[in-house]
Design goal:
heterodimer; A: mainly alpha; ABC transporter involved in vitamin B12 uptake, BtuC; two-stranded antiparallel sheet; 12 helices; about 75% helix; globular; B: alpha/beta; Rossmann fold; 26 helices
């Protein structure tokens, strides 16, 4: 094994881990608001990438056209997240969380099928980031990687500000702690769940947008991406969006090191094996409170 | 052994779809149709196991395909690499799967909630990676081909109909085992664990063990299916039973209706037939699939089978053959009390819920524990029952130190309890709930005797009219009695009752008092917590009064009720000595506004 290549694997791991973190933060947000694990989170990522791909082709070249394509695709995916919420609202009275989880799974299966029909089975990609790279501690980081990390950092700060410094965020956290009590002070728990879904749609779409130029995207990439994002979220403490981002970075690095040091056959396994260790020794996740984990 | 004649009609009907599956291939000689049905049968074997785990035990496994893969690879590798017979390789695969399930299950099932789902979700990916990594042995991503067919003596099972029959025989065996399992003591225990882990533990069920066993059982069935698959298709690859397959298993089960065996059958057959129906428009298949799942979940959250009222798996047998109930266990003589608590304390953060409680309970007596709200009464019961461990102090029961024992062990030792808010298992009838209570009386013999004894108890409690009803269909008094019946079925030496009279009418309280006096005569010790003084004074020989976690009085009802400190703390001053009399007759009760704040029962009555 060539040790000198390790910094490069770590750098790659951090970059892809940042995207896992964004996906995981989407899981966390919805779980926090409604105790539901949203199986369609991976589909938000795929659609974020594929819709942008098509819109870029449609709008043509140029920075303005690209920006329009990005904004439009983010809006479309957020719209799909809203649609998922509307579907979930149709549940009969007395449905439990498991029912909702299964409905998100149903929507995920249908969305994946739809994406297969619309985009076919080939991998798609589009150029987004300026070409070029910098050398940091022996690792070559492309501008794309740097932008990905910067966006993740920005999103985390925005998420923190939104959750802890705005009325809406406080209402959402109150709802997460106790919907019944939140309701007595005039907060509508349903609206908070909608906000969480919109947020998770946006986070997922951003993840797809950042990932597609570097790693390409196909209609069925969502399964593995959701798995990684979910792993990140669980490692970070499921109901803690910042834990999810941190968890994403950790498993990204573990994955990078594993691929570099052992074998790429096990690429998808490292993150999960790491998660098992976390769950065995710290069931509430690396950054989660015990209370939030227990059902 | 459950004799065929005892099987309720619903149980026999359950075999109908199975028999139909057996007859169907006779109608078609088409090899393609037969192969589709063979795959359906193989899928059904896995889904039945998953139903035990998810539908009965309430534990979600999202990576169940790994056990199918383990079975398939065990069969494929042991036969092709070592030349073993497939019939030997198959049980080997089952052992491998069972061990894997133990390895995963023991740490993952200690905790509640989605823990198992989280831990299993990534297993298909891990196993896939491992199989690829050790490609020298496993064939890597190209899998294992040339798996020999199974043979009976010299007859090689290679015709589609022969393989179909093999799968059918396996399915029959699996269905027989599964049906027996869910109807057994263990099946009841699983349902209880699913519904309410604390209530299950109070009945003597080792919750973690029950979950692990269900997981192992489902893993073994999955492995069997995988082995049969490997010999049928003669090829297996790392991703044959990956994440999509694992998810599909859960989808088939929940669409059909988890927690019902025929739900598993309906779901599997319907969802595996769907692709055949959609062959003309196969590209639309996932979309249709998703819509079907969404519609079923939204409008029939318990699946298609959930649309029908659940049939009781055990119905009240006719009276007459009811054996004598041997309620108390043989009383062992104790120098002092049956239960001895010595300086037992419990802190919740900075709050001392129970402080230095020393308490003795004698057999054949009803002892009451009273005190204002927040006095630590329920905490004291929880400490005795083992729901929470004490912060310090010593608890002895029948001569054994038990303060570190988990709740289920204490239940088996002879501590029965009811909860402040009745905790029956919603998916079980009154009779089945009482039968579940027998779990605590470990090693209490054959299942049928258990049913008869539970039925006798149900009659004795006057519950025969609602014996086959579900908890949502009975009233508060019947629910209280059922819960007491559950505790009694475990043959307790000590019975802990937490506010059994709350919400009952005065006539019902009288009947309850009568029941308690009857228990006392049979030698059971009863610790009664209640605010309803009518019940306490009518049944208790001794009253212990707690306030803020400390004992403020102890003695006979007469002594305690005359105690000034008690009247100040609990009954409120200026109330007639026999507050119970007031409580019994709501029409004579004063306005709520004039009532002492510490007497909730009076306020309840007036309100």
């Amino acid at each position: 094994m060539d040790l000198s290549a390790l910094p490069q694997f770590v750098a790659g791991g951090v970059t892809v881990g940042a995207v896992y973190g964004l996906i995981g933060a989407g899981f966390s947000l919805v779980f926090k608001a409604s105790k539901v694990v949203n199986f369609a989170q991976g589909e938000f990522v795929v659609l974020g990438g594929l819709v942008t791909y098509s819109l870029m082709a449609l709008f043509g070249a140029g920075a303005a056209a690209a920006s329009a394509a990005i904004l439009a695709s983010l809006a479309i995916v957020v719209g799909i997240a809203a649609l998922l919420y509307v579907v979930l609202r149709q549940a009969r009275h007395g449905s439990n969380e498991f029912t909702f989880v299964m409905v998100t799974l149903a929507v995920a299966i249908a969305l994946r099928g739809g994406a297969g029909l619309a985009w076919g089975t080939e991998f798609k990609t589009f150029p987004l980031f300026p070409r070029g790279s910098v050398n940091i501690l022996g690792a070559v980081l492309t501008y794309g990687a740097l932008i990905t990390l910067a966006v993740t950092l920005l999103v985390s700060v925005a998420l923190w500000f939104g959750l802890y410094r705005t009325r809406l965020g406080k209402a959402l956290r109150a709802c997460a702690d106790n919907p019944a009590v939140a309701q007595t002070v005039g907060i509508d728990p349903k609206r908070m769940v909608l906000v969480a879904y919109l947020g998770s749609g946006l986070l997922g779409a951003l993840g797809g947008l950042l990932l597609t130029p570097a790693l390409m995207m196909s209609y069925d990439s969502g399964v593995i991406l959701a798995l990684k994002g979910f792993t990140a979220a669980v490692a970070g403490g499921l109901a803690n969006p910042f834990g999810a981002v941190a968890g994403g970075l950790v498993i990204g690095v573990i994955e990078g090191l594993g691929v570099g040091a052992i074998s790429s056959d096990l690429q998808n396994a490292y993150a999960f094996l790491a998660l098992l260790f976390v769950l065995a020794f710290r069931p509430q996740g690396l950054f989660g409170g015990r209370q939030e984990f227990a059902r | 052994m459950m004799r065929g004649s005892r099987l309720p009609a619903g149980r026999r009907l359950l075999w109908l779809p199975i028999v139909a599956l057996g007859v169907l291939p006779l109608l078609t000689g088409d090899p393609y149709q037969l192969s589709v049905w063979t795959f359906i049968l193989l899928g059904l074997i896995v889904v039945l196991g998953l139903d035990v785990l998810l539908g009965y035990g309430g534990q979600l496994s999202l990576g169940h395909g790994v056990f199918v893969t383990l079975g398939a690879y065990s069969s494929a590798l042991l036969t092709t690499k070592l030349g073993w017979s497939g019939w030997v390789a198959m049980p080997c695969g089952m052992v491998v799967s069972a061990l894997a399930a133990l390895l995963i299950g023991i740490p993952a099932l200690r905790l509640r909630g989605y823990y198992l789902a989280m831990a299993t979700l990534g297993f298909p990916v891990v196993l896939d990676g491992v199989l690829r990594y050790f490609s020298a042995w496993t064939g890597g991503s190209s899998g294992v081909s040339g798996v020999p067919r199974l043979a009976l003596g010299t007859l090689v099972l290679k015709e589609p109909s022969q393989v179909y029959w093999l799968a059918f025989v396996a399915l029959c065996a699996v269905f027989f085992a599964t049906e027996r399992l869910v109807r057994s003591r263990f099946g009841l225990a699983l349902k209880a664990v699913h519904a309410d882990e604390a209530a299950a533990a109070a009945r003597g069920i080792d919750v973690a063990r029950a979950k692990v066993l269900a997981f192992v059982f489902s893993a073994v069935l999955a492995s069997l299916s995988g082995s049969l698959y490997a010999h049928y298709v003669q090829f297996v690859a790392p991703d044959t039973f990956g994440i999509p397959y694992s998810i599909m298993l859960v989808v088939m089960l929940v669409v059909g209706g988890a927690g019902r065996l025929w739900g598993a059958i309906v779901g599997t057959v319907a969802m595996m037939w769907l692709p055949e129906l959609l062959r003309a428009a196969s590209t639309w298949e996932p979309i249709v699939f998703g819509i079907v799942l969404a519609v079923v979940m939204l409008f029939a959250p318990n699946g298609l089978a959930g649309l029908a009222r659940r049939r009781p798996s055990i119905v009240l047998p006719a009276a007459g053959d009811a054996p004598h109930i041997d309620l108390p266990r043989p009383a062992t003589p104790h120098a002092s009390g049956l239960l001895l608590m010595d300086d037992v304390s419990r802190q919740f953060g900075g709050v001392r819920a129970v402080g230095g409680l020393s308490y003795q309970v004698l057999p054949g007596r009803v002892q009451a524990l009273i005190g204002p709200n927040g006095a630590g009464k329920s905490t004291a019961l929880a400490l005795i029952a083992g729901t929470i461990p004490p912060s310090s102090g010593e608890i002895r029961f029948a001569g054994q130190r038990i303060e570190q024992w988990p709740a289920h062990r204490r239940a088996r030792l002879g501590i029965g309890r009811t909860f402040q808010h009745v905790r029956l298992i919603p998916g079980l009838t009154v009779l089945e709930n009482v039968l579940l209570g027998r779990y605590a009386a470990a090693g209490s013999g054959r299942h049928d005797d258990g049913v008869a004894a539970a039925a006798a108890l149900v009659r004795q409690l006057g519950l025969e009219a609602v014996a086959d009803a579900y908890p949502s269909e009975i009233n508060q008094y019947q629910a209280r009695l059922t819960e007491i019946g559950m505790a009694l079925a475990g043959k307790p030496r000590l019975l802990l009752l937490d506010e059994p009279a709350a919400g009952l009418s005065s006539a019902e309280v009288d009947r309850l008092a009568q029941l308690l006096r009857g228990l006392r005569e049979s030698g059971v010790a009863v610790v009664l917590v209640d605010h309803v003084m009518a019940l306490v004074t009518a049944s208790a020989e001794e009253i212990l009064v707690l306030e803020y976690g400390n004992v403020i009085a102890q003695g006979t009802p007469g002594e305690v009720l005359r105690n000034e400190q008690v009247r100040a703390a609990y009954l409120g001053q200026g109330v007639p000595e026999r507050g119970a009399v007031v409580a019994e007759d709501a029409s004579n009760a004063p306005d709520a506004a004039t009532l002492p704040a510490h007497l909730p029962v009076l306020q309840e009555r007036v309100a």
